[in-house]
Design brief:
Length: 181
């Protein structure tokens, strides 16, 4: 895993391999995603939520590009421990809020709103299809905010009323959602 751009560009991190419960986004797909986001967001002025944060790859990328308000959520202790350790190494603890908890509990309990939300749930998660609805029901996006969900070809959001775009990178799909007027 590497940070693609910004202050920490080129930094590599190797999550522990034993029983690691995540599927990190491939570098080429993450790079393509951030090329799109670069045209949609001002990284220095946004509030970010990274759901199913895993290795923290997306969180580090935003902080590296100047974002100072990132919230990371994952329930797996090994992932959270790895992200805390990496945040210490990068000295970015002040810009990264880390929550070790179930993502659905977080969505249900938070009162915060975000400019950008990323969700990279496990592909076989049985409730993956309800995540976009929950984001909008709980009003987690600020006006003009963007929600991106990573998923595989087995999930189709083409009829979702908030879908604005779909990008495919091999078997990695990014569905882009936005609040409609």
């Amino acid at each position: 895993m590497r940070i693609i751009s910004g202050k920490y560009r080129g930094r590599r991190f190797d999550p522990p391999a034993d029983k690691w419960p995540t599927r990190p986004t491939m570098d080429y797909a993450k790079e393509a995603l951030f090329n799109i986001l670069n045209n949609l967001l001002d990284f220095e002025d946004i509030k970010v939520l990274d759901l199913f944060g895993g290795t923290g790859s997306h969180s580090y990328e935003f902080i590296s590009r100047g974002c100072t308000d990132v919230t990371y959520v994952d329930k797996f202790p090994g992932c959270v421990q790895f992200v805390r350790k990496t945040a210490e190494q990068l000295k970015i603890e002040s810009g990264l809020k880390i929550f070790q908890m179930d993502v659905f509990r977080f969505i249900d309990s938070t009162k915060e709103q975000y400019d950008y939300i990323f969700a990279g749930p496990p592909y076989p998660l049985p409730t993956i299809d309800v995540i976009p609805d929950l984001i909008f029901e709980k009003k987690l996006l600020l006006p003009n905010g963007i929600f991106v969900m990573e998923h595989d070809p087995h999930h189709d959001f083409s009829n979702h009323p908030h879908l604005m775009d779909l990008r495919k990178y091999g078997k990695t799909f990014f569905s882009f959602f936005r609040e409609t007027a």
